[in-house]
Structures are given as C-alpha cells and as structure tokens.
TrEMBL record:
Species in which this protein is naturally found: Flavobacterium celericrescens
Membrane-traversing stretches: 21-41, 53-76, 96-116, 342-360, 367-388, 394-415, 427-446, 475-493
Protein name per its UniProtKB record: ABC transporter permease
Keyword vocabulary terms for this entry: Membrane, Transmembrane, Transmembrane helix
Domain of life of the source: Bacteria
Length: 506
C-alpha cells in the first residue's frame, strides 16, 4: 500500500515523496497509539497494596531506542535523493515546506511520551467520578485527625523583654521564641487554641490538621476541619462515629489491613471534653515501617509532637496506602493533561532536531561536521573564560555577539555572492543558533535586574524588583513568542537559502 502511495506522490507531490512524509506520519501515529495503550496499562491502581504496575521507565527507554532506529532508517532513505545537490528547480518557499515536513515528523516522534502520560492519567481518573473522589478524599482527610495527623500552628503572642523569665529566655535561646524588629518584644506560639471562646491544648484533637488532597480546595479543607471541630466541641458523638465508620468501610472495600473496630477506635481516641489524652493510631503496618513511613503524614509544623512523646496504641490502619492511592486519583482529576512547559520543551526539541537535519540537507556532510566541531570549540573556550573570570554571565555576553557576527557574515556573503564553501559552515552555525538570541538576551536582562537584598533582623528587604518579577513571570510567554518568531524567520530564511544555493563554488 505504501509503495502505491509513494508512486502517486512521486508523480504529483515529489516533495512529500522525498521526505517520506506519509509513511513516517503513519508510523509515528502507530507509535502514539501503542504508547497510549502502555500508559493506560501503567495507570492501573492496586488499592490493596503499595505495588502498582510501573512500566514507565522501561516504556521510555523502549520508546527512545525505537525512535532512534526509525529515525536513522528514515534519514538514510531521505538523504538518498537531494534535489539541492542536483540543482533541481525549486519553488520560492519549497525549502520551508520541506523543513516544515521534517519538523512535523520530528515532533511526532519526540512527543511519544505525551500519549503515554494521557493514557496513564485517563485510567487513573476513570476509577471514580470527580464527585465520588471528592467524597472519599474528604472521608480519608478528616479521619486523619483521629489517626496520626499533624497539628496546626497556634497563634503568635508577644511579651516585652523586661518580663521575660528564665524559662522563656531558654525558649528564646532554642529558637522557640523569636525577637521583634526593634528587639523590645519577643514573640512565640501560644500553647493553646481558642475555639468558640473555649481553650484547648495545642496538642488536642481540635488542633489536628486534615490531610490535603488536590480535589479539595484549601477553603473547603478549612471548612471540613471546622466541621469536625464543631462535632468535638458540641460532643456530637454520632457524627464522629459516622465518619469513622465510613473510613473503615473504605479500608474493608480495598482489603487493607487494620485491627480497628468502630467501638475500640472511638474509645481510645474520643476523650471529651479536652480531647488531649487520646492514643495515636499507627498509620501503617508496623512490619512494613520504613524511614519514609511518615512521608504521608505531613509532620512539617512548628508544633508537631516528637515521635518519642506520642502515645501509640496497639491499633493500626493502612492509612499511608489509602492516602497514596487516593492522592493518585485526586491528582488525575485536577492535573491538566498537557503542561505548557513540557509542550514547549518538546517543541523546542523537535525544532532543534529538524534544524540539524535541515542544515545537513541544505549544506553538506563535511561542512556540517566542521560546524559541529567549531561549535564545540567555541563553547569550550567561552566556558573556560567564564570559569577563570568567575563571572557567571560572561559566557552569555560572549555568545550573543558571536551569533550576531555569524548572521552578519552570512548575509554579507549572500549580498556579495561569493565564497560559497566557507558560507556552508556559516549557514550551519546560523541555523543552529538564531533561535537562541531572544532567550539568551532575555536571561541577561533578568540577571541585570536581579535585586540586591540586605538582611535586617532576619527580614529580607528587596528594592526595584518589579521588572525582575515581571520578567520571571513571563518566561513561558517569552519562549512561546520566540518559537513562533523562529518559524516566521525560517519562512523568509528558506527563500534566502534557496538563492544562496545559486552562488558559484569559486
């Protein structure tokens, strides 16, 4: 079938025939379908243990290897017929269309990971609807307050330095009490919280955090916590037991291990009215405890109780597994399928590969190799200068005028219509570097506007950072605009290259 298609293309669309565009697109789409299936398989979630199917690394290695092999075979067939070397008549912008086909093929093969990630996320997302996922995550998040959740920071209080006693001074020395900017007042966290005009110990259940899932907004997360605090404050035992029962239902549904029963859990945790004499529940199986076991429990708070002070019961629930699995489902619902940074990175990769192929096509293997060696030597020399001078930005200050000089030299050759042999090397360097001018210049401007700061009582004061912040915020936009401009420049540059090919060798 492909032979018949190629014959028709040879007669009617020789450019498409020469680039092998149709068969390469077909192979590329087939690879995308295969990797979508592999990604969907990799997205399988086993809720009963920690061992999910993980073929991502193997799939990527396999994809890279297959793409390299296919690309080599394609280039061998593509370079067999070069109309430029045969001085075949070409239309005004045929070189641009040829590059565009190379770019599309390169993009299709470089982006093989995208269908893999989409398939994986779609499978993870398919387990439960957004509403069902949110409800289940709410149960797991709020139940964490009764298992082994972290504690919230308490409010700050202050005291005048003249009223600081010995105990408080020692707390200042250990960093528990900070100093104000004028050094007259010391500040520290209170050892209690106030909820509806009633004080509770900072390590009471009412000061416990809920676990954070991406499907639950910060605002809703705070409301969920307040709801549980209200149950405790109002001694609403029925609602607390309902929450615990819903949680245990999830544990049973996914065949996870626990030795908790509803009554026993309630008895060892629910210690009204102060709620500070409870026992902790092990959030994982003790025999599977590792140094990362507490990763899922978010203890990074200033008032977290040290592990040696926690009073653990003999009871456990595989809360760590439940969090991990539902984190995956939650993120599948909230993460975007395509991140602009990744898309841009892949597009720039395809642009770079297509320009390497296009430059080889339009010049010669010898000049392409000399240009490669020249590029390496220039970068090594500039790198040595940068290291010796200890000026971080010196490399960029040197490379920009070098690129501009290369561009200027090539256009002088085109204008004077002589020295074709040397200009082949120059053209390679031009094609490989012109798209870097805007990004390099942009980062030079960012560095030039980096604000100085000074440390004043541990407070960093920044001056004139509006432009610096604006430039940092718009980096993605800069790369997007630069990519579009690069294609536009190539459109006009292709016509210049076509005319340049007409220059005599001597």
């Amino acid at each position: 079938m492909f032979k018949d298609i190629q014959k028709k293309l040879l007669l009617k669309y020789p450019l498409l025939w020469n680039t092998k565009f149709v068969p390469m697109i077909a192979i590329g789409l087939l690879l995308h379908i295969i990797f979508f299936g592999l990604g969907y398989l990799d997205g399988t979630i086993d809720f009963s243990n920690k061992n999910n199917i993980d073929i991502e690394a193997i799939s990527i290695m396999f994809g890279v290897l297959i793409n390299i092999i296919i690309t080599i075979l394609w280039l061998v067939n593509y370079f067999k017929n070069n109309s430029l070397k045969s001085f075949y008549s070409k239309s005004k912008y045929s070189l641009f269309y040829e590059w565009l086909q190379i770019f599309i093929i390169s993009t299709l093969f470089i982006t093989f990971y995208l269908p893999f990630s989409v398939g994986k996320q779609l499978h993870q997302k398919s387990y439960y609807s957004l509403e069902e996922t949110t409800n289940r995550c709410k149960t797991i998040a709020t139940a964490d307050m009764f298992i082994d959740g972290s504690f919230e920071d308490t409010e700050l209080d202050s005291i005048h330095k003249s009223k600081l006693n010995d105990e408080e001074y020692n707390r200042y020395l250990t960093g528990e009490i900070g100093v104000s900017r004028d050094s007259n007042y010391y500040y520290f966290n209170k050892d209690y919280i106030t909820f509806k005009e009633k004080k509770y110990n900072q390590f009471s259940l009412l000061n416990r955090n809920t676990y954070e899932f991406t499907v639950i907004s910060r605002e809703q997360d705070s409301l969920n916590k307040i709801q549980v605090q209200n149950w405790l404050h109002q001694n609403d035992q029925a609602e607390v037991k309902k929450l615990m029962d819903n949680y245990l239902s999830l544990i049973r549904e996914h065949n996870l291990a626990t030795n908790l029963t509803l009554d026993k859990w309630f008895d060892i945790v629910y210690k009204a009215p102060k709620f500070d004499e409870f026992l902790y529940i092990q959030p994982y199986l003790k025999q599977y405890e590792t140094e990362n076991s507490y990763y899922y429990n978010d203890y990074e708070t200033a008032v977290a109780v040290p592990e040696y002070e926690r009073k653990y019961s003999k009871y456990f629930a595989q809360q760590d597994v439940l969090k991990e699995k539902y984190n995956t489902v939650s993120e599948a619902h909230t993460d975007s399928f395509f991140k602009i940074e990744i898309i841009l990175g892949l597009l720039y990769g395809a642009l770079g590969l297509s320009l390497l192929i296009f430059s080889f096509r339009t010049t010669s293997g010898k000049s392409w190799l000399i240009a490669s060696v020249t590029t390496g030597i220039i970068n090594i020399i500039y790198g040595i200068f940068t290291v010796v001078s200890r000026a971080d930005m010196l490399y960029f200050y040197l490379i920009i005028p070098t690129i501009l000089a290369i561009i200027l030299y090539f256009f002088i050759i085109c204008y004077k219509k002589k020295n074709l042999q040397l200009s082949r090397i120059t053209l390679n360097l031009l094609l490989w570097s012109f798209a870097t001018i805007i990004p390099i210049t942009y980062f030079i401007i960012i560095e030039a506007n980096r604000p100085d700061y000074y440390d004043n009582y541990a407070l960093q004061q920044f001056e004139n950072r509006e432009l610096y912040d604006w430039l940092n915020y718009h980096i993605v936009h800069m790369f997007t605009i630069n990519f579009i401009l690069s294609i536009i420049i190539l459109f006009f540059l292709s016509k210049i290259i076509r005319n340049w090919k007409g220059i005599a060798e001597n």
